[in-house]
Amino acid sequence: MKKTYSRISKAELAIPHNPRSWQSKFSLNDIIGTGELMDSYRDAIKVAAAYELPVMICGETGAGKELAAHALHALSDRCAGPFVWVNCASIPSELIEAELFGYEGGAFTGARSQGKPGKFELATGGMLFLDEIGDMPLALQGSLLRVLQMNEIVRVGGTNPVSIDLCIVCATNKPLLDLVRAGRFREDLYHRLNVLSINVPPLREREDIPYLAERLLARIAGRLGKPTPNLTAQDRKLLLGYAWPGNVRELENGLTRMLITGKLSISVTEPSSNPAQPAPTTSLKQRIQSQTDAEIRTALKQTQGNKSRAAELLGISRAHLYRLLKEQGAE
């Protein structure tokens, strides 16, 4: 039977649809840096921009993954189309499906009467940037995989597929292969998204930190209406000797404080010689396990305890689900 595709006009959308409101704000020229490492990084962006293939941007927090995505869009043949972004970690799991795929009017309590387009519809003709893809709920990953395979979505509460035409770019600061092994990320989705990869260099591996700091100082000083100070030899030594766990974002914060206080200082929390009770910490493995347990509970609740249907919803085999339940002691 022939598929019927939904044709949605701007007048039917519940919110104004102005493609110019979703545009990349940065270009390759905004990626500041010198040396072979930065040249290779920019070359990787140029290569990825030449193809309409899924791109995975990997890098630590604060390294500039979103900046890379903006530059990628600006270089691509889709630069005249929208650049739509969504942070998968910032949206509650019960709302992310409607955020991505949109919903029909009255689909759920509190829904707009006219419905609302999702990010996939808004990005048609351009690029969709899925930031923190590793935090996407496991139950939704199967829907995303189908979108990538069929180039169509169905709104929440909808009955007809909506055809879409866009490029997908993802970013993550998590080791996705570890999530795959832990059953937190679908292996088929991982391979579908990781066609072209871009690795954003962490700041501690760069040799051009003083150069970057000078450029950023001038930019921040202009924004604050202050004169640009010169970096001293001691400042340069401090910049090169620090590990920068917060990467470029942390560097910008330190330079901003310098312009305000007149002295370059780095906020490093030194361990106390006689610490009180330390705050409890959890390992990555523990956090992954906690999230996995929550996903399983949600799937079982949605399927009213039917394990076969829950496994299908989670995108794993029934045997895998039973193993996870056994580890929980809930089989």
TrEMBL record:
InterPro entries with a match to the protein in the record: AAA+_ATPase (IPR003593), AAA_lid_NorR (IPR058031), Homeodomain-like_sf (IPR009057), HTH_Fis (IPR002197), P-loop_NTPase (IPR027417), Sigma_54_int (IPR002078), Sigma_54_int_dom_CS (IPR025944)
Keywords: ATP-binding, Nucleotide-binding, Plasmid, Transcription, Transcription regulation, Two-component regulatory system
Positions of region (Disordered): 269-291
Gene3D superfamilies hit by this protein: 1.10.8.60, Homeodomain-like (1.10.10.60), P-loop containing nucleotide triphosphate hydrolases (3.40.50.300)
UniProt domain Sigma-54 factor interaction: residue ranges: 31-260
Pfam family, one: HTH_8
Domain of life (superkingdom): Bacteria
PANTHER family from the UniProt entry: C4-DICARBOXYLATE TRANSPORT TRANSCRIPTIONAL REGULATORY PROTEIN DCTD (PTHR32071:SF57), TRANSCRIPTIONAL REGULATORY PROTEIN (PTHR32071)
Name of the protein in question: Sigma 54-interacting transcriptional regulator
Organism encoding this protein: Rhizobium sullae (Rhizobium hedysari)
Phylogenetic classification of the source organism: Bacteria, Pseudomonadati, Pseudomonadota, Alphaproteobacteria, Hyphomicrobiales
